[in-house]
Amino acid sequence: MKLGLQVPFFTWPGGPAKLGETFGRIAQDAEAAGLESLWVMDHFFQIRGVGPKELDMLEGYTTLGYAAALTKRIKLGTMVTGITYRYPGLLIKTVTTLDVLSAGRAYFGVGAAWNEEEHNGLGVPYPPLKQRFQMLEETLQMAQQMWSENNGPFEGEHLHLGETLNVPNTLQEPHPPILIGGTGEEKTFRLIAKYGDACNIFARDPDFVRQKYAVLQQRCEEIGRPYSEIEKTTLSSILMTKDGQRPAGIQAPEWIQAMTPQQVIEHFHQLAEAGTDHGIFNAPGVEAPDFFELWTQEVIPAVEKLVPAGR
Length: 311
Hints:
There is one protein chain. The protein is of the alpha/beta class. It has a single domain, classed as Luciferase-like domain (TIM Barrel, Alpha-Beta Barrel). It contains nine helices and twelve strands. The strands form three sheets. Strands 1-2-3-4-7-8-9-12 form an eight-stranded parallel β-barrel, surrounded by five helices. A two-stranded antiparallel ribbon has the order 5-6. Strand 2 (37-42), helix 2 (60-70) and strand 3 (75-82) form a beta-alpha-beta unit.
């Protein structure tokens, strides 16, 4: 089982003046710890459930480009980019650039978008949900064309490109893995089955994850696609301490319960039994210089031995 780190929180000691230094160290430490991937949110404001909207939030692809320059192996992606945030053709160009400059380490994380407040705040159009899903599918089709040898126009119902020229193209072949975020069983899962290379499910509990995978497998069977082609990823929020006690003063939502290393290992073991290939987690306290010690000593070696169900 592979492990990845998502960083959704950037309000750290030292403030903005130290933010680049701290994030750069986190990226390098995550790679040195042997993690498979590094992810950031793609939002304009901090989101509910993580903190007040006034807290620090970095632009996603600038942040990943910075991480790419400081690392050599770890894969990089947004968890995930709302389709409304950038002109789709420029978004695909941006992902392509990240893939080239990182020597082939980019994921294309994308979804239908949801946070209306941040759209209104920065003047970004926020179409109705049905149109956003239509735009998402057209963007996936556009990406396939831009990542091919077809430089001709693209004509969708909502999106129109006069020329899909994309040079240099991606280093990964045929293209960076497409991770489609969301758990909607009708619209989102049908898009994953048709266009996706990976899904991401919130790891609320193993039964929830298992049920979602079962529906995704059904969607794949409906169009004749092998379910095994989809990389199954989950997103967990983990507060780990040696004794499983919540530290005083920790900047973490109350709903995140503290766990011991053995409890964390068991958490990922249950996800692997459900069929998860790639367990992605975020963690309060990741900015601490010694954060990865407990992970490298006790958790990562054990989780790497887990074999996901169906593999």
